[in-house]
Amino acid sequence: MQDTASRLSLRNALAMAAFTIAFTALMAGTYLLTHETIAKSAEAEKLTLIDAILPRSLYDNALLKDEITLPPTPEIGLDDGGHAWRARRGDEPAAVVIEAAAPDGYSGRIDLIVAVAHDGALLGVRVTQHRETPGLGDYIDPKKDKNKSRPWISQFDNRPAGLPADTWRVRRDGGAIDSMSGATISARAVTNAVGRVLAYVAVHRDTLFARGTQ
User: Fold this and answer.
1) Which residue among 99, 104, 113, 201 is least enclosed by CB atoms within 10 Å?
2) Is a pLDDT exceeding 60 seen at residue 214?
3) Are 54 and 87 in contact, with CB atoms under 8 Å apart?
4) Which residue, among 195, 176, 191, 211, has the nearest Cα to 120 in the 3D structure?
């Protein structure tokens, strides 16, 4: 009887081992078959977001391959670091798209990408992640903004270089950016973050626009 129990335990162990090997092989095969498709999909999604603030007519390089890994950069909200992508046309610097974050949204951190031209002009801004109150502060995201003809975030489009620093405040704080009545905190957080990004790019312009792998 003990011998029968031992054989049964061995049979179960072998069955479990065979299942584990088969499952691992299946997962590995699935990864090999799908990881390239997933990577291409993620790349396309990222480019679609960037296209909203950086027209492709401004550059002719492989933008996502001309990437900078930023170290921890708390001055633009990137305590754990982030990324920037350099746009070039005819091998000359055209713009940079840089990640940033506003830590002081109504419901916490608001992640952004900001496109800045080589001459310091602000090309555009998009919110990439947030937890602002639905129907109130989430208008900072154009997908959630009820004003589809002129979303709130479009106020940042194509602003010239050299504007006074206090431009990058909401009107309630003496700046030039409108906000929604009763939902100023979200707009203030994004606007102030954009101002910090422009100041950062101005200081680190040479590094950000340096020639890199294309």
Assistant:
1) 104
2) no
3) yes
4) 195
